[in-house]
């Protein structure tokens, strides 16, 4: 099992600074407005890191919460609860950690490109084996089978890791920003799609739904007992005050059930927001790719050949000679387009990230 410490130190020191990519591109002609954008992106990065941590951590926490609803005060139900807690520890705790690593690959890549732009590789630390093990082992049972990241998405994630490893070790120059985005987009897209689908299927639409079902079952058990007492008391024409008290207990029980379900619904909204953020990030990356590829969707054979050098697992196979394709400055027209799509991206994800930032602050202040 991978420890939390190991994961925190995993490939690229997965501290998320998502929007540093376009910001760093602007630094060459940085005015006051651009500096404000740098500050804004820095704040958004912290929120995205909180989103990844909160959602992946709650894969395990949701299992534990569901297990707690098994108990109905008798020995048999307590045994079931203990059995379920064991499943949580053996299956969902490690998968929660693996999910955190998986979620960090995409955003960790973008941070590395940001470091490339700033020519500061201090945050780079290759942990290829750790990433590969986490992605291949990530698997959560669902009502229809299992949810996991498919082989194509895993391969794409490892391709991204290879590219950044080789780029930084062999040709670390700010002028390679365009190439980093153009070369990796075909792998960013399937990886982001696989990642979003995993969180959507395993967490939002299975674990949290299972939690809601168990809450309803728990309160339904006690509500059923209380209904039996209320109906029996009414049939026997008992004291009206006692009857009113029993009815009040029924209402309190229903309110408690609603409150617990609402908590899980909030988490479903958070999870859905995180899935949307992943997909919006992939869309944003493709728009940048098109800008830097003369508005073309496909790469030329020459471009693919140059890119492939940086996808090699062994860095020694890379030609150390300068490449005209890999070393290109960003022209004013491209910069203007980047600013436009960046503004659009911020407007889309900022409201989604704000929720995680607020919850992160509350957790810190406890």
What does this protein structure show overall?
A hairpin with a 2-residue loop joins β1 (139-142) and β2. A two-stranded antiparallel sheet has the order 1-2. It contains ten helices and two strands. With 366 residues, the chain is an all-alpha fold. It starts with a helix and ends with a helix. α2 packs antiparallel against α3, α4 (75-117) packs antiparallel against α7 (177-235) and α5 packs antiparallel against α6. It has helices spanning 4-8, 20-26, 32-68, 75-117, 128-137, 151-170, 177-235, 240-292, 301-308, 332-365; strands at residues 139-142, 145-148.
What is the SS-derived class? mainly alpha
Strand order of the largest sheet: 1-2
The residue fraction in helices comes out at over 70%
Assembly state: single chain
Please give the largest β-sheet: 2 strands, antiparallel
In whole angstroms, the N-to-C terminal distance is 29 Å
Strand content: under 5%
Secondary structure tally: strands: 2
Cα-atom radius of gyration: 25 Å
Low-pLDDT runs: 1-42, 120-126
N-to-C SSE series? HHHHHEEHHHHH
The averaged pLDDT comes out at 74
Molecular shape: elongated
Count of discrete alpha- or pi-helical segments spanning 4 or more residues: 10
